[in-house]
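SEVERITY: medium
COMPONENT: batch folding queue
REPORTER: lab tech (J.R.)

DESCRIPTION
The queue accepted two submissions in a row. Attaching both inputs and their returned structure tokens so the on-call engineer can compare them side by side.

ATTACHMENT 1
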Amino acid sequence: MRYTDDKNKGPTLTGSRTAKAGLAALMASTMIPLHATKAADTDDFALEEIVVTATKRASNLQDVPVAVQALTSKSLEDLNIKGFDDYINFLPTVSYVSFAPGLAQVYMRGISSGGDGVHSGSQPSVAVYLDEQPITTINNVLDVHIYDVARIETLAGPQGTLFGSSSQAGTMRIITNQPDPSGFAGGYDVSVNQVEHGEMGFSAEAFANFPISDKAALRVVGWYEEEGGYIDNIYGERHYAASGIEIDNSDYVEEDFNDVRTAGMRAALKVDLNDSWTVTPGVTYQNQKSTGVWAHRPDDLGDLKYRTFGDEFANDEWVQGTLTVNGKIGDIDVVYAGAYLDRSNDSSTDYSWYAEYWEGLLADYGYDCLYYDELGGCADPTQHITGDEKFTRQSHELRLSSSADSRLRWIAGAFYQDQKHDFDLRWVAPDVPTGEDYSPVPGEPLVWITKQVRKDKDRALFGEVSYDITEALTATAGLRVYKLRNSLIGYYGTASSTYCSARPCLDNPNLDKETKDNGSTYKFNLSYKIDDDKMIYATYSKGFRPGGVNRALTGVVAPAYEQDFVYNYELGWKTSFFDRRLRFNGAVYLLDWKNFQYSFLDYSISPLTLITNVGQARTKGVEFDAVFAATEQLTVSLSGSYNDAKLKEDYYQDDDARAAGEVTAPSGTRMPFVPKLKLTATARYGFNIGDLPAYVQGAWSHTGENWNNLDVSGRILQPSYDLLNAAIGIEGDGWTAELFADNITDERAVIFASQDNFIDLPIYTNRPRRFGIRFGQRF
């Protein structure tokens, strides 16, 4: 189901090559280096150095006392990664739930209670950034097309000091390649593929870096991709028992109906004003059109079969303008990063199953014979949801930092963010009469409407200070002080609701609430360099997530829910062995999640999803990242995470349930959407075919079993799954050709086993086996 709102919430070939190796080294950051590099003037080889900006400074990964894993441009392209559903499987510290392109939630280190994603509900626990700018949204992770991207970084654990709200469990950053005045670079990649049990797909991508002068350059990127469908919408009938009305879906029957088309561009202009100051304005635009659903019903309809009785589509379009200014005032580095994001999403979702289930039970919603046709008989209650959503965000950050070479180093800054989500969701039943007594909107046959504007504002001051107590021992302390505001204004209700007795009801909102928060978050870290290749560190940090308002006022749930906090205790290591041919990094940690927000639906209390602070949970875990250059031709890697996330106390839905001893989830219950074990592994071997370099690569990911809900009364244990990809390619003078196969074993992953659809019980799954060929060229 595309919307989990309101009434029902329950059950390319080679890396982008620049003219300067220095720039490539600065931008490179990889979890899986695919080639070892030779040391100068020797026959030895070692893993390439990794530079990350996770601490908002460019630093060698092995010198940063933070749990960071990343995928570089080379890794992303070698793994054939195009978008969210691709790269998320190769980030072992991240778990997720996805319902459709651009409709997903991400989690880290077991910080997940389930029930997330309601438009007017809790903010995410993981922040997402595109370059320097936050793009975090509720329930709708931007499905940024991955091409000419320098790296994707994941920072596990609370990052509230530097990255603020919604970074309570971690932060995910997509870093794009920047303009380079030193020389021209360009390239293109094309691919064609065939999805087994489905359709063909193709993609065309290109980039060009144009030096305008020795102080200015323009980088332009474009992409177009069509993904073939593989879910069949099959024939079916519905029978509404109370009215006797029968319908069928013959007008909507279609094979392979879940298609996706993604088109977009990105442009950035870099201008060195002088030796100290640089300005980089940029713009990114993307339009993603999808049809159908990404679920099937294997138990009753068959593999990759589904049944809908209405249009299913989404048109997700967004543009983001950015401005980054880098400079120096004396020895102080200055960075300003600002952005404006404008996103719109028009959609339609079949909702006929809901009417079939509730007909005769919820007369106020018009699912029996409350509404009549022109002849006085029962009107067909079949309905669908139309969505008209507009999302805007502006963010501004100004930060100052001292020299990275000083014994005492510091970063200080100010942050401002203002986001607005204007959503108009309408439950439409076309055969319901549209007279004055029935619909809140003249001429439109509505059953329910949610027309609201949500605003979230965030202001903060932050800083971190590091001091080298000795040459080996460094202490770091960080602090962020913030103010937050969340508001909701608008209308929600049924067509027969007394809220709409006076027309026009949309001019008379029945919801106008606001809540304000303030507080601070902090971080303490000690790191010790054993030698040039080994470091250990200890971190205590705190992360937070804003509170907000509930739409429904009840005697059970307060009108507002409070902030929740994560307290992180972590021991980590960064090590290299065998002349830096083996890198082994990792961390063990304990996270306490206090006063956490939980979303639930109980019709005895309210027909709307409610959010309340319910108690405490704890995660005990370990994560690691190992890469080994076994020979100059063979590189292997293994990365993973283990998370044991459980409730620390009994959860009762309300005081009446507590008094009756009705436990919703007892202490020790595993948290939902948290696989205990997640692993990824790759192996890449280089060889020659005649005089041409060639390679073969395999990539595997494992996601352990996990629950789909916190409520133990009806939750489902989602089974583990394994995905295996492979590729073989050959490289010429500036070109690469490759054959690839994704999901070789044709695995059906259970990404989400739905309980919110009481009859159809869809299982959201992954793409079947896919074969393809890619060709790319660099200039």
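ATTACHMENT 2
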Amino acid sequence: MELTPTALALIGLLMAAWTAAAAWMMISSAARARKAESSRKAARRLTRLIDEAPAIPLLIRADGKIEAPDRLARWLGLDEVPRYLSDLDGGGAAGKRGGGLSVPQLEELTRNVRTTQKTAAPFRMALTPPASNRSLALRGSLADAQVWPGGAALVWIFDFSESESELTRLRTESLQARQDFIALSGLIEAAPMPMWFRSSDCRLKLVNAAYVKAVGAASVDQVIAEQIELIESTEGRTAAQYAGQAAEQAALMERVVATTIDGARRTMRVSDLPLGAEGVAGYAVDMEELEEQRRAFRAFREAQRQMLDQLSVGVAQFDGQRRIISANQPFRRIFAIATGAVAGGKTFDRILSDAREQGRTPEVRDFPAWRAEHAEWFAAGETQEEAWPLPGGTHLRVVAQPMPDGGLVLIAEDRTEQLALSATRDTLLRTRTATFDSLFESLAVFAPDGRVQIWNRSFAQSWGLPGDFLDGHPSAEAVLDAIAPHLQDADNAEAIGRTIRAATLDRKGTGGRVALTDGRVLEYAGVPLPDGNGLLTVLDITDAQMAENALRERNQALEQADQVKTRFLANMSYEFRTPLTSIGGFAELLQAGVAGDLSEQGRDYVDAIVRSVGRLTEQVENVLDLSQSEAGLMPISKEPLRLLPFVTDIVRQRAQLLEERGLTLDLRGGAGTRIEADPRQLGKAIGHLLDNAIAATGAGGKILVDLSRKKGVSRIVISDNGAGMTRSELARAMDGLRTAADGTLERRQGLGIPLARQLVEAHGGSLEIVSAKGQGTFATVALP
């Protein structure tokens, strides 16, 4: 079928229209493609910008779904971003690594998000995920409708870990600084020394409690308000002016001043320390105790030097430059050092040279080398000791002690006498050994450990031991084991051991007797020695034991004789006194003329009989009193006596005798002295002493009787300036003896002194007589 031109034209138009439409569509598609590519590029740029942004957006829809970049998962320690807000705690698929927020953090975030979604109120919060060390700041607000319609919440999350670390560090430093300031303030406040701080104008701004106490103020505010200064003005300058000078010089200034604290003058060391533009700090250290210590040290050093001068050992001290700085007098004497040598500080080498010239150093071949060798003592690390034999027989012990400061202490001891004593000691030891061997007793010395130290030859013989048994210094147990077979009773060996232990360890003396199997009897005794050892003495008393029985029998006989003597003395008074009384009575009757008148010669005979009876009666009384006193039978009947009137009566009884012999008697003493005594017996004792003094004093002589009482003891002193007695004569007079014409000793006719002593001792007192030939006699009676 053929197309008409019209149809062809229409077809052509249709084709043209279709081509135009296709071209337009192609052009439009290309434009949309370019626009989509541009949108994709813009989306990638925005995504990249969000990824590089310091904040991460978190979109939370109303249904709890969330949208956020993957970077948030890394910040929260999760593998991926969860789909819902409730999964941010690490639960579900997001909890594989145990990250996310803690339950309280998630609850707080959820609560803030719900509030924002409902009220459109923004919120802020900060948190640190448990699985991360990041510090996150969250700022939430209601999302714009173009971002997400329907009331979603948009939360921007910022990582401020670095800022938080810096803030934490600053807070820590601030806290530490505050604590340090508090501690420093407390330290300054509790400081025992006054401390203060001045502002830049040198006015007091801060003081501690010690400052307030030192100035006697009520409080710190009072000190600051009144500007009370601790330190007084010196040299016309106040303490504030000194502080201003320290601030101007920007240097620490110290000075020692005296000030009054608590009413006492104290020496203080004041320091002003400038602190730049802030002000000046100051403190005062009490140096009074230090000054006292210095004074005490000076006194101690002076006392030490004086003490060293009193020693017999020479001591000298040299300083680090080897100059002598001190030497005591023994050191100067030993080395013949002049006094100026110490003051001049002579060197050690010069001291040795001078000592050599004085012959105070050992004789050596090369003296310079010897001197240089001894100069090395200063550098020695330990004490050096030498023995110096000097010319003339002197021996010195020299000790050199190096000092930490490089000096030297030199000690010199003269041991000449000690060496001589040592030689004497050796001689004495040999003498002791010889003496021990020659003693009749057997001796052995045991050490505290029980071993035999010293013995004589007879010790082994006494116990029947071998001669060489003791040479090995056996122990006490070994000695006892060797002795036991020779004892009649082997158990006695234990008693001997106890004696040895008591003498060596217990320091007690004990003893005993043992019988040996050979019939001998040994007596032993343990004696503690001063050196800690024990001495065991053994004596063979076999013969003494045999004589003991005889002595016992004789003792019984003596006891019987003593009883006879007692009975004799008891009857002697009657047997002697009765005849004498009868003779005296008849003589007095004849003298009175009862038997008629007597011729003159008869009266003389009767007077002689009366005088003889009186003298015989006195002698009998003396003999009886002396015998009774020696036998302990003297009757004493004490009564209160006033001493001065009592002695005065005794003296008056001898007034005529004193006048006949031309003697002067001086009686003096306190009138109030009282004693308890037997008037008859004590009067007899004092009378005998007066009679002896009268008999021993020539014409024109003087006798003194002095009465006194001191410390509860009454004293009667009878002294004369008569002929006196030698020591031997006095001893015989005290015993009632005298020297006869043939040189033998015989009993005195007068028993005054022995009887007086017995009577005084019967009163509990004592009689002491001191006499010198040609100077008189001094008798003292002491009564309680």
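NOTES FROM REPORTER
The chain is about 45% helix and 20% strand.
No errors were logged for either attachment.
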